[in-house]
Design goal:
140 residues; mainly beta; Immunoglobulin-like; five-stranded mixed sheet; 9 strands; globular
């Protein structure tokens, strides 16, 4: 009985923890084989840097990043990817992959990319297990 209580307490403790922000200089760049689109700089393109949090929650799977419906990258914990985007309105989405048992939905947010500016996005997982992507100033 005591062992069951210890296991339950540990499980609840882990479940209550979300992920933690990582500063950009402490991240590992996403390997080129997991950058699927928007990875080439070009004239007139703005920079979008996406950083995935550190932490145990969700660490067993990649977070797949979509931009305007196109698969862009797969990030592991504490990784960052630099994307090059045309200015304008874009929709960024994230979903765990593999999506075991189909239990997760894609979480999306929109971002207006301004010309000649660097934008930062953060992929996080809340204490309830929901993956999110949002603009951030936490990574700088």
């Amino acid at each position: 009985m005591r062992l069951i209580a210890i296991v339950m307490a540990a499980s609840l403790g882990l479940a209550a923890c979300g992920t933690s922000p990582v500063k950009l200089d402490a991240t590992t760049p996403t390997p080129p084989n997991r950058i699927l689109a928007f990875g080439n700089p070009g004239s007139g393109l703005s920079t979008v840097i996406v950083v995935r949090d550190s932490g145990f929650v969700g660490s067993g799977v990649y977070q797949a990043l979509k931009v305007d419906g196109i698969w862009a990258a797969k990030l592991d914990t504490s990784e960052s990817v630099t994307l090059y985007m045309a200015p304008g309105d874009h929709v960024f989405g994230v979903i765990p992959t593999p999506n075991l048992f189909g239990t997760h939905s894609i979480y999306e947010t929109s971002l207006r990319i301004e010309p000649m500016r660097t934008h930062y996005l953060r992929i996080s997982i809340g204490a309830e297990g929901t993956t999110r992507i949002a603009p951030t100033a936490e990574v700088q």
